[in-house]
Design goal:
It is elongated, with a radius of gyration of 19 Å. It is of the alpha+beta class. The chain has one domain (4-95). It has helices spanning 68-78, 82-85, 100-118, and strands at 4-9, 15-24, 30-40, 62-67, 89-91. Residues 91-100 have a biased composition (Basic and acidic residues). Residues 103-120 have a biased composition (Low complexity).
């Protein structure tokens, strides 16, 4: 049995994350072959009644069980996309925005670097 992880989605309508691998067609041309997809449930925040719907936490996030290997491949192909950098899609427990200490540490480092550049 394949292992699964929880993937969070803050988009109201959800999203389908498609995973591709390079290959060749019958004529030897380079193509991308779809090897799978992860259909993430949406938060439904724009239509949800107070209290939300099943599977949602208090932050308007819907979590979906996803195949861990497929998610890892999709993440590797898309780690710099706006979906990831904005926090709209993330693996549960691996989102920097969920950790206030990490945010404070990053802000302190930026401040220290800025002050170091100003010194003669």
């Amino acid at each position: 049995m394949a292992s699964t992880i929880k993937v969070g989605c803050r988009l109201p309508q959800g999203i389908r994350l498609r995973v591709f691998e390079p290959g060749k067609d019958a004529f030897g041309e380079n193509v991308l072959n779809e090897i799978g997809e992860v259909a993430l449930a949406g938060s439904g925040r724009h239509v949800a009644a107070p209290g939300g719907l099943d599977g949602k936490d208090d932050d308007g996030v819907a979590f979906t069980d996803a195949d861990a290997d497929l998610w890892a491949k999709w993440f590797k192909q898309n780690e710099k996309s706006d979906l990831i950098t904005s926090g709209a899609v993330f693996e549960k427990g691996k989102q920097p925005k969920d950790d206030p200490a990490a945010e404070n540490e990053a802000a302190a480092q930026a401040s220290t670097q800025s002050q170091a550049k100003r010194r003669p």
